[in-house]
Amino acid sequence: MPFVSQTSLQSDYTLFSSNCPIVIDNGGSNFRIGWAGETDPRIIFRNIVQRPRHKATGETVTIVGDHDPALMKYFDCTRSSPRSAFDSNVVYQFEIMEYILDYGFERMGADGSQVDHPVLITECVCNPVQSRSKMAELLFETYGVPSVAFGVDAAFSYKYNQQLGICDKDGLVVCPGFTTTHVIPFVDGEPVYKACCRTNIGGFHVSDYLKQLLSLKYPHHMSRITWEKVEDLKMEHCYIATDYASEARLFQKGGKEAEDKTRCWQLPWVPPPVEGLPSEEEIARKAAIKERQGQRLREMAEAKRSSRINELENELQGLEFLLQQLGNVEEKDIACFLAETGYVSKQEIESSRAKVMQSLRKAKGEPKGEQAETEEKVDPSAAEKYPLINISDNMLTPEQLKEKKKQLFLKTTSEGRQRAKQKRFEEELERERQNQQDEEKRLENPELYLEQLRAKHRELSEKVEQRKRHKTNGNHTNGNHNLSGGVGRGERLNAAQKERMRLLTTAAFDRGKGEDTFGARDEDWQLYKLMSKDNDEDEEGPDAYEAELARISSRLQDIDPNFVSKSELVPFQPVVEVPSFRPLSKEDFQIVFGVERFRCPEILFHPNLVGVDQVGVDEMAGVSIRRLPSRSQGLNERMTNSILLTGGSCLFPGIRERLEAGIRMIRPCGSPIRVVRASDPVLDAWRGAAVYAASLQFPGQTFSKTDYYEKGEDWLRRYTLRYTL
Amino acid sequence: MKNKDLALSHKAPLQMEPEVIEAEMVLPTYLSFKKVQMHEKYPKGQARGRHWKHLKQIIQAENYQNYPPDEPNYVNIESPPSMNPCKKICDITGFEAPYSDPRTTLRYANTEVFKHIRLIPNESVQRYLALRNAQVVLK
Description:
Shape of chain B: extended
Number of strands of chain A: 21
Structural class of chain B: mainly alpha
Oligomer: heterodimer
Strand content of chain A: 5-15%
Region (Disordered) (chain A): 358-381, 409-444, 466-489
GO biological process, one term (chain A): actin filament-based process
Distance between the termini of chain B: 54 Å
Radius of gyration of chain A: 45 Å
Subcellular location (chain A): Nucleus
Helix content of chain A: 40-55%
Number of helices of chain B: 6
Largest sheet of chain A: 6 strands, mixed
CATH superfamily of the domain at 203-268 and 591-677 in chain A: ATPase, substrate binding domain, subdomain 4
Strand order of the largest sheet of chain A: 3-2-1-11-12-21
CATH topology of the domain at 203-268 and 591-677 in chain A: Actin, Chain A, domain 4
Family (chain A): Belongs to the actin family. ARP5 subfamily.
Pfam family, one (chain A): Actin
């Protein structure tokens, strides 16, 4: 039930005589103004002011209260945010206060040269005299008000309810407001401010807490979680649990009860246009198109290949022709003959011919045969190339020895190459075999396989992340030693750099023996090898991991329809990740809140949940009773027998029972406790003030402008209203 | 003379869209019941509003220590800290939290939450801590 503002222009201002006071409830959330003696305030609006620029004219205008967002689009609100005149519950910004009063009086239909009615305005408990005097000055000087009275809204509410019979003349009023919560004891119908108690937690803090929690839980919907929406949510859905711990356990178990208590807010979402299941003809048609495209590509490839083959054949023919001609030409003419063709010698022609033959064979698509050919070519030539190896040393001449060395060297290298080729071949076979096995495993038990693969992927991604973090040492302030002193040198160096520093410092460390003996031994120079940046062995490890990770990711992407390769996918309830690889569904645009419903108003009872080191509402009652100056036993019992809940923030369901339970814990066993809610927690303060202002003794409680100037600030400080008239 | 001219000039209504005028949401610049208009009090161009004292300064200027301590004033009616031990709830889920993470000082309820804590970026960690006023403020 959001608060509704009433801001229609009142037309009967002139009907009221100058004696009729105007009653203003100047609250942290809403401003209410009306005539004394009436049951409802005439004008209600939110106590905020905005000064946006009108887009069309460029003028800066003032807008008081909250208005229809559709109309706000005519204004440029980027530079102006809603501002309140309050700091906690004290008015400090009187320029804003003036705008608000302007609007209030104007809506009441005020005309004439001044506001010619006494004004009763509410303030906070023990308002600092500066704020009070500035308010009085504003009313006297700018509006020409004849007389002013200040009162406390909670007190008015209590008096009103006392008249209704809901509470007694001795009692306690508990008023959770917008920014603060007060507990004021009443003795003989008068508030005892000495024993009053104030905690700086109110509805504002509850809303703010809810807003922060939802924003942190759904970071990608942060822009839709606005203040106004959060307040609406709070008013509609939040409640106070009778016992926080058991309620939390209920949700932790996650049973049906918890489900029922969880609310879900569906954000507007447009499903992506679904193509619909393609019908049979569609599929067939698409398949046919694909087939045709494939065919075309194959034809093109064929054509290219055949043209290349033709080219090569032509070249081969040319070369053979050349060779033939060479055979026919005489010895001495070879040189000039060859000069024309561009080849230097016969061997060159032959080698290029061999190359062309090879490429021709490749183009024709006989790779294996070609390899075998070259292998064969190598082997026989090996036997003939290295004839000298088998002959023992002492039978050879020095030149032949040199020849032999060369041949030995060539033989070993070629053998090495062969062995490498063999190993590669074997590895290929091995991989093939593994893939085969994998396929079999997959076919026989797809689910299990998928699970295993996913688990492996997760592990690997974690390891890679860790490795990365370990290397760069992260930009997180992870270590405790990083929290103090800001950025330390330890943050910037990774493991390898640290190692290098360590080596350098140990090497340079002067052991105090006088001489520097570094370098005397050969092993010392190994230090540089260890330090060398090229020699960073750390690089190899993660590469293997990363390669493995890549392989598994690609595999998963092939076979798993739900795979998301983001390494930070956490399928966990508190925070929802937007999966970027599957299409967004309706659930992604839902904001679910269950625990937050009762976690947020809990701060009224436990302010240290938000870091405010004060007592909660239930304990405040105890503190207040303890602070009472005259404590007779009967008085305490009468106090707890009539506890009134008033103020906007007491509208949470369940607060009454919780407060009763809380107070029972701190009072002696068996003492009477009765907690009642005000008849209308929101409007009762105004109503009480209106009734008060309508009474005949009211003028005796006001002070006029002359009073204000004559009696001075000290008198103003001590000014309090007498509530029992 | 000058003031009258100013007053007259401000009487002319601003040119606005019809629905805005109908909603009467904009505060008129001239109000008859005011002795001093806003634009006179706070002329354009001057630094407006920056000279207002905040609550802390107001309280300080009140000099409550000069007055007898049993007289109620804004400061001494404030509530004391709680006598009960602080209730520890998980920063992320709101359940009861017997454990706290040594690295980030966040409180958590079980191992799943803990895994999540270790994955979120530092900015989120600080925002969670700020919820209970425990964030790290680097000066």
